[in-house]
Amino acid sequence: MSPAARTNEIGTVEEGPLSAVLAALARDDPTGVVAALDGQLHHGQPGSPAALRQQVGERLAVALAKQSTRASRWIEALASSPSPTARQVACLLLASRYPEDPVMVLRTAEMLAEDPHWEVREAAGGLLGTLLDRDFDRIRGRLETLRSSRSENLRRAVVLAVKYAARRDKPERVPDLIQLIQPLMRDEEPYVRRNLGAYTLGDALLRVDPKETLRALREWSKDRDQMVRWNVAMAFSSAIGSFHWPAAKSILERLAKGPEPLVRNAVAKAMRRCRQRYTEEVEETRLRWLKDRDRLATAELVGPLKKRS
C-alpha cells in the first residue's frame, strides 16, 4: 500500500479516523475508540481496516505501558465489547500486557479464540503465536493442552499459533513446532485441517526450515491415517510448498497410490500447483501415472495441462 493510500485509509493525527481514535484515547474513553473504529466501512460492513486497528493497538500499548490498572480496564472494555473491531484491537493490546499479567492475557486470548466472529478468532490465533514466540516453553506447554480441547476453535488456534510463531531467524524451533502440531494431523474437523497442511506446514514451516519439515512430511506420508496423508499432500499445494517439487515428487508418488478420494484430490491439487512452476517435470509425471493402474485415478484428477492461448 502506498503512503497516500494508507493515509486515506486510516487518516492522520489531525483528521480522519485516527484523529478520532486519539481524541478518545486522550479522554480515556474506550467506548469512543470503538465508535471511531466502527464508524468506518470494512469490506462494505461497519468496521475498520487492519492498518488502522494496528495503529490503534500500537498507540494504546505505548499510552498504557506504565499504567497497569488503566491498561487492565481498557483490555476488559475492548475484549468484552459487542464490537468485533474492538475485540480485535484487544488482541493487539494483550500482547504488550503479557509480562505483567500472563494468566489474564492467556485466559483472555483463549476466550477470544472462541469468539463467534472469524476475524477475532484469527486475531486471537495471531496473539497466541506472538506469545509462543516470546515465551516459547511456557506457551508451548499451554498449547499442548489446548490441542486436545473439545473445541475446534481452540484446536485451530494452536495451528495458527504455530504458523505465526514460525520465524526464519529461529529455525531451531521447527522440530518442537512440528511436534506440537503432530497430534492435530489426525484431526478430522475441516476448520482445523484447512489451516494445517497448506498454511502452517506449507507456507510457514517449509519456509523456515525445509529440511526438517520435509523429513517430517516423508515420515507422515507413510501413516495409515488418511487425514495425516491429506495434510502432507496439501503442504505442497501452497505457494511455498510448490517450490519443493524435487523433494515432493517421491512423497506425492507414494500418496497417489492411496485408495481414499480425499487424499487423491489433495495430491491432484498439489500436482496442479507444482505444475505452475515445474511444468515439464510435473506433466511428465502425470503422463506416467496415466499408465500406472495404481495411480491412474489420481492422474485423471490432476487433469491435462491447459494450453496457453
Tell me the layout of helices and strands.
Layout: H1 3-10, H2 17-26, H3 30-38, E1 40-42, E2 45-47, H4 50-63, H5 68-79, H6 84-97, H7 102-113, H8 118-134, H9 136-146, H10 152-165, H11 174-181, H12 190-193, H13 196-208, H14 210-220, H15 226-235, H16 245-255, H17 261-275, H18 279-289, H19 296-302
Question: Which features would summarize this protein structure in a list?
Answer:
309 residues, two-stranded antiparallel ribbon
Q: How would a crystallographer describe the biggest sheet? A: 2 strands, antiparallel
Order of helices and strands: HHHEEHHHHHHHHHHHHHHHH
Strand order of the largest sheet: 1-2
Low-pLDDT windows of residues: 1-13
3D architecture notes:
This protein has 309 residues and is an all-alpha fold. The protein has a domain at 1-94. Helices cover 68% and strands 2% of the residues. It has 19 helices and two strands. The chain has a two-stranded antiparallel sheet with strand order 1-2. A hairpin with a 2-residue loop joins strand 1 and strand 2 (45-47). The longest helix is centred in the middle third of the chain and has 17 residues, at 118-134. The chain is elongated and about 75 Å long. The relative contact order is 0.05.
Write a compact overview of the structure shown:
The protein is built from 19 helices and 2 strands. It is mainly α and 309 residues long.
